[in-house]
Design brief:
Chain A has 114 residues and is mainly β. Chain A contains no helices and 12 strands. Chain B contains no helices and 12 strands. The chains are: A mainly beta (114), B mainly beta (117). Chains A and B meet through strand 5, strand 6, strand 10 and strand 11 of A and strand 6, strand 10 and strand 11 of B.
Chain lengths: 114, 117
Amino acid sequence: DVKVTQSSRYLVKRTGEKVFLECVQDMDHENMFWYRQDPGLGLRLIYFSYDVKMKEKGDIPEGYSVSREKKERFSLILESASTNQTSMYLCASSFRRRVAGELFFGEGSRLTVL
Amino acid sequence: AQKITQTQPGMFVQEKEAVTLDCTYDTSDPSYGLFWYKQPSSGEMIFLIYQGSYDQQNATEGRYSLNFQKARKSANLVISASQLGDSAMYFCAMREGRNNQGGKLIFGQGTELSVKP
């Protein structure tokens, strides 16, 4: 089975702190994604990556950056956390050569910024 | 403009009955894919079913079927014989273009389904 592992299920940070959310997948997927989920808004794409060292902005990249130094790992960085970044963050990966290309998700990281 | 719209924030269904969750989409790309995901209260996103824009038949996976009406741009999920374990949030999603062109999904707002015993 595909496994997407997010480093922390729950985090509490203070305004202005730098926050790292780590995601690792074990199925050699080319594509990796970071979404945030908020009630009533569904999932919104922050950043995605097609390959190592490549990154593309999603719909809401402001206040975030990403890093993909290895194929299996995709990190989301909040340079200076703010209270409006309190949310559930979901990492996902997918296999580029599949026709459907369904995303496989991690369990999520619930971030609270005080 | 919203590309994926789920107009039912919440729905109730009696156990063992069928239920339809609505989803409409908007795209000008002739090649696209439509997905449904289930998110139980535990939080994990579970892939349920996929429909490609060129697929001639509606997709089915066990008790799940996707009612694909291309002209109306709708991709409703039908769950037959509802079970208590079907209570969850359901998300419709779309990928524009073929998977090897990117693969990112755009999600709807979600519909919370509650199955009554």
